Amino acid sequence: MDKQARFETIEEMKGRYSLVELCRIADVSRAGYYKWKMTVEARKACLEQDIDLKEHILAIHRLRQYFGYNWMQTALGKEGLVVNHKKVRRLMREHGIHSVIRKKRPFAGRKLSVIFFQCSKSRIYNRGSSNETGH
């Protein structure tokens, strides 16, 4: 049982039993319990913010599937949302949002020059002719 579940159990049972005994049984400190209790609202607000941010990320992902977390952070910034790249990466990973990675084609832009091919072809055919001078 994780601490979150232990704190929730203590919260449910604190009306019937003493808080000191419940914390001792659950093996948590009272300070830890009170800290958890004070931050419940902040955690809920953060969770709602993450859900809203996830919706923005999904909307951008539908338009631009090749955006990774860096470009996603830039796109969110253009929408007026200032978000750390680590948070964007975490949300994308938690919700299974992956960028589409293009297939690498190392020789995609390189083609043989037509002029070079014609010149070398003519040299081969003219090699044995008597028109050559020199060597």
Key words describing this protein structure:
135 residues; mainly alpha; elongated
Provide an overview of this structure:
With 135 residues, the protein is mainly alpha-helical. The protein is 63% helix and 0% strand. It contains seven helices and no strands. α1 (3-13) packs antiparallel against α2 and α5 crosses α6 (85-94). The model has no long low-confidence stretch (mean pLDDT 85).
In short:
The protein is mostly helical and 135 residues long. It has helices at 3-13, 19-26, 30-38, 40-63, 69-78, 85-94, 114-126.
Ordered list of secondary-structure elements with their pairings:
Elements: H1 3-13, H2 19-26, H3 30-38, H4 40-63, H5 69-78, H6 85-94, H7 114-126
Helix pairs in contact: 1-2, 5-6
Mean pLDDT value:
85
Over all CA atoms, what is the radius of gyration?
33 Å
Give the SSE string: HHHHHHH
Describe the biggest sheet? none
Ends apart, CA distance between termini:
90 Å
Helical fraction: 55-70%
* Gross geometry: elongated
